[in-house]
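Long-time lurker, first post.

We've been arguing in lab meeting about whether pyridoxal-5'-phosphate would sit comfortably in this protein at all. Half the group thinks yes, half thinks no, and nobody has a model to point at. So I'm putting the question to the forum: if I give you the sequence and the SMILES, can you give me back a predicted structure of the complex? Inputs are below. Any interpretation is welcome too.
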Amino acid sequence: MKHHPQPPLPFTTDSQLSVIARTYGTPLFVHSEESYLRYGREALDIPNAFGLAVRYAMKSNPHSAILKIFDRLGIHIDASSSYEVRRALAAGIAPGKIMLTGQETLQPQHVGELVEKGVIYCCTSLTQLKIYCELFAGSGQGVSIRVNPGLGSGHNNRTNTAGPAASFGIWRDYVPQAIEIASGHGLKITRIHTHVGSGSDWKIWEKAASMTLGIVQEFPDVTIVNLGGGYKIDRMDPEKSIDLQSVFSIIKRDFETFARETGRELYLEIEPGTYLSANSSLLLASVNDLVDTGAHGYRFIKTDASMTELLRPMTYGAQHPIRLLGKSGDTLRNYVVVGCCCESGDIFTVKEGDPETVDTVELPEADIGDTLAIMGAGAYGIAMSAKNYNSRPICAEAMIRSDGSHVLISRRQKLEELWAREFPV
Ligand SMILES: Cc1ncc(COP(=O)(O)O)c(C=O)c1O
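Top reply:
Settle the argument with this. Predicted structure of the protein with pyridoxal-5'-phosphate, as tokens:
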């Protein structure tokens, strides 16, 4: 794991984080309102030809405080399950601002209730499309469908959400069936959704956009094109962020060309999750213990955080910058930083893209009681962690507000809550 020892903090200082750690305890996620606002504004500012909606992929971090920050900015919601829809509604998000694009095929009654409320339902399979069309036959409701355009750009099968090996969306060859199902019920397909995976390479995005526009050619009534999420943001060297301005300048040009050739002005939607949330939150953990495996082994920092807070290294071999708060870099050591679960894979420093292989990070000499900041943990951190494994209560979360003050936004789970829903035999 190559990164500069003591990588810089994104939105705060060592001393503020030390105060926050003392105030609320660790493990603790610390979010930054200002950072969410910054990335939100960047997304809203992308070049577009005929209008833009940004939807926050709330699965990356569904906390109501974050949903509200984005709502106030004018960002809408991409929900991936009916549960997320309910969570967004409970946070006060207007139904018309929520679009559900989910893998779960809901019962017709459930789809009907959501759509009657005003939630937009995007059909991701022919089965879902049939259910929707039967419910709303002849009603004039627009139909949204997710299409798998045949191109995927994720790094591996866990991040790839398009292409022949992905089950997401209606396979491109079945487009004629989709059109037939909708028109057979007197309905028009008005929104095409694609999501090709994740990346920063503008060529992939240009290809994805032009493939999507090629598909839109087959749908004369489509007025909205949703390009999904997957906009890469660098968490640490040598990762590269997508240049949203450049990529969307190219896509804007493609939309303009499409309009000149067809007379159709398409409205653009995007659904970033990672881009908006990844660098807006970090995980604070305390050094609980220091152990080593001898002269030819490793030095380990054992922390009080674990896979129950951050699973990405263990799942994807994801890299997160780690900083030891309040320490100078005079004496550096190579450490393996591990979690405290009784699970050999519970390691924060693994080889990039290879969770099976242990790696080290260079840090100042650590002492028991020190605090570590594990950065870039805002997207798919607390949202996707192995909650309650080893009967560990879900950790607390704090937010640094734009005025610099901090506040608790999730309390630590009480241990009794773990067995409160169990019944005796
Ligand atoms: C349909 C859809 N939209 C948005 C996203 C968000 O992706 P990211 O967090 O990489 O931006 C995903 C992620 O898989 C997705 O499948």
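For your lab meeting: The first strand starts at residue 28 and ends at 32. The chain has two domains: 14-30+280-418, 33-277. Whichever side wins, do check it experimentally.
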